Amino acid sequence: MGKKTISYAKWGYIFSIPFVVAFALFTLYPIIYTVFIAFTDLKGANNTTPHLLTGDLLKNFKDVMATQQFKISFGNTWKIWMMNFIPQMGLALILTAWFTDNRSKIKGQGLFKVAFYMPNIITAATVAIMFNSFFGYPIGPVNDILMRFHIVDTAQNFLIKKSNGQGIVAFIQFWMWFGYTMITLISGVIGIDPSIFEAAEMDGANRIQTFLFVTIPCIRSILLFSLVTSLIGGLNMFDIPYLFLKGGPDNATLTTNVFIYNQAFSGAYLYNRAAAASLIMLLIIVFFSSILFYVMRDRDAAKAKKLRKQAIKQAKLKAKEVA
Amino acid sequence: MAEVTAPAKVKKPSAINKRKNPIYMAFIYVICIFLLIICLFPFWLLLVNATRSSIEIQTHAVALIPSKYLQNNMNVFKGKDFNVLVGFKNSLIISASATILAVYFSSLTAYALTAYEWKLRDGFFGFIMGVMMIPGQVTAIGFYQMCYKLHLTNNQLMLILPSIAAPMMVFFMRQYLQASLSMEIVESARVDGAGEFYTFNMIVLPIMKPAMATQAIFSFVGAWNNLFTPMILLTKNEYKTMPVMVSLLKGDIYRTEYGAIYLGLFLTVLPLIIIYLLLARYIVAGVALGAVKG
To answer: Could you write out the DSSP letters of every residue in A4-70?
Structure first.
């Protein structure tokens, strides 16, 4: 009997070593180093020796906050995210309602899902440049279509207007992500106990009532998950705005990540300010992801606690039996 | 009983009438087909324009039928310093290695979190959950400076090794293991005298195959599409990945060679489109699977 109580616990530690080491080297250390740089004078092309700021330790943060471009980029990031997220979630909800409605079975759902998700797996860098050439002036597919159908008489230079730039970036994000959100929501609805829907139908609820008052409350946690992941993705938006118009026209598509990139890597070499700006964004992301963290953790922790309590109870019972 | 329920159903004819309202159904299909075209047409346009001459594109930028200038565009394209094959090779090396490491070590970490009772386990899992959402971009400055100091920029290993620690994947793998791993199998392997590492490789990994396949697809596509880190780390042309090379396509050299631009864009998405069309069912199912955990 003694052999059965051999502890395998050490293997838990041993098998976690590769993860811990890689995480420490490639994520934790860079985070700490970024924090450190944010309080130093590290700038210049070949400068690798940061010195802690002597006077005002928070100078980099204050500089960033005072920079007009950072304020603009921060506003743009939120604006573009909302312009993409609201229609994206709206459309995804409508499509979810249609596809999961068993009163009107939509045919070809598999095909629609595959097609709607496709833009999501395509390289964002390619998508950005593709749309840039689609809106080309004076020739480009969008202008060609508009002129062929006589919607406009002369070619339009879409990309010089600030609102167009933001709108198109938001549209590209929408185009890339609505399929993903839709599949996410549909999988949530499929997980709902079907008897709830039958009961609603029995009670005479129509489609809209069923969706609003039965389906949506049941997929609350998935909606929150979509919201938070989309928000974090949106706050990190880089590929599309950077490659679509390099932040232009007139800073209209300058997002915070494009700002950070410009500070550090496009000739300015202001690593300390870029680090400070990264940290500001990190704090915001940590704030929002901690909301998700608590919502998701509570359930898991509660489950684990229950199981452990049961295990302890059983062990005690066994011990009593043996005694 | 049947007599009681039957009249109850007849009581709500409105719901039954709505069941197959043809106008409502037609409306749904029209919207869905419209969205389908919006999602797929851009890629078709890339393909078609890749086969058209610059003059054709200048007269009409939209066409539905391919032309005959593919070879011509290919020659223009080859003349530039944008070498698709090199980018393709680099992307393949980085994405494949990163995926193998991520899948293997995430499975190992998930196994450590599932099969063993150890003191720091819950704390470690809480930590993984906590860092799951931190995007790589916010640590980029520190990461770049670290690599620069150690003369490791332009080193592909710096894009491969970090994938050993993939918190999101550990989370999904753990979820899968908890549902599908029975400790009895592990116990019987122990009785047979198998070492813990051997048991993991020979018995647990095969159980995890479905989860590994799904995660591998997403990991590969994610690594393939990554732009930010390769762009700041890789400055030499011989190391550049596909997305970094695509970003060069925007340069002025190609301005008038419209066909060549479209060809370049099409070539960069071709491998992804092929993977997607072959594995679409699994990919869509994988997205749904990942979401249920939320």
So the answer is: GG---HHHHHHHHHHHHHHHIIIIIHHHHHHHHHHTB---STT-----B-SS-TTHHHHHHHH-HHH
